[in-house]
Amino acid sequence: MDHPVDLTSYAELAVLLINSPERLTGLEGLRALLEEGGRYRPGCRITRGDLDALRDLREELVTVFEAAAGGDEQDVVDRLNSLLIQHPVQPQISGHDGERWHMHLTEGGRMADQYAVGAVMGLATMVTDLGVDRLGLCQAPPCRRAYLDTSSNRSRRYCSERCASRANVAAYRARRKVNGQ
């Protein structure tokens, strides 16, 4: 299995959760988050327990990205190892939607467990295959949204084109002001 390709979508679940605190205020918001992440199936039961568990997971994942942004590789690894113990992986071979056989990390347990296993294992695989510096927090003040740097030259610094443009315009204006223009 080629982990960086196969598990990047799982790592993106962590980013989605971190960047969506407003969706963790009720079950409808959680359902929308799960739908966006491709984790919600019609008829799937989500509970207040799922909501509480994903709120807690979000806080833990934020600390992983903060440690990565601070360059503390050991802290990132320690935090991910702790999360891997809390959310053990249960791999299964799956085939659906006309796709060939492939690995899914879990299909059992409550919804929050399924989400957590995917997000944590995806991040752990990214860190081991690509490095801690691939986990980032947007450098456009005051944003601080999480992102995964999948660029070939490890150059990503912003969560979106919007933040990159805003930061570039601010830097340009600051230079002009210093030069008296």
Total discrete domains:
1
Count of helical segments?
6
CATH T-level topology = Jann2411-like fold
The overall strand count is 4
Distance between the termini: 56 Å
Order of strands, main sheet, comes to 1-2
Poorly predicted tracts of residues: 1-5
Largest sheet: 2 strands, antiparallel
Order of helices and strands: HHHHEEHEEH
Helical coverage, percent range: 55-70%
CATH class: Mainly Alpha
Protein name: Zinc finger CGNR domain-containing protein
Pfam family, one: zf-CGNR
Domain Zinc finger CGNR: 134-176
Task: Explain what the structure shows.
The structure is a single chain. The protein is mostly helical. The protein has one domain (about 5-135): Orthogonal Bundle (Jann2411-like fold). About 55% of the residues lie in helices and about 5% in strands. It has helices at about 5-20, 25-35, 50-70, 75-85, 110-130, 160-180, and strands at about 90-95, 100-105, 135, 145-150. The strands form 2 sheets. It has a two-stranded antiparallel ribbon. A two-stranded antiparallel sheet has the order 3-4. The radius of gyration is 18 Å and the shape is globular. About 30% of the residues are buried. The model is unreliable at about 1-5 (pLDDT under 50).
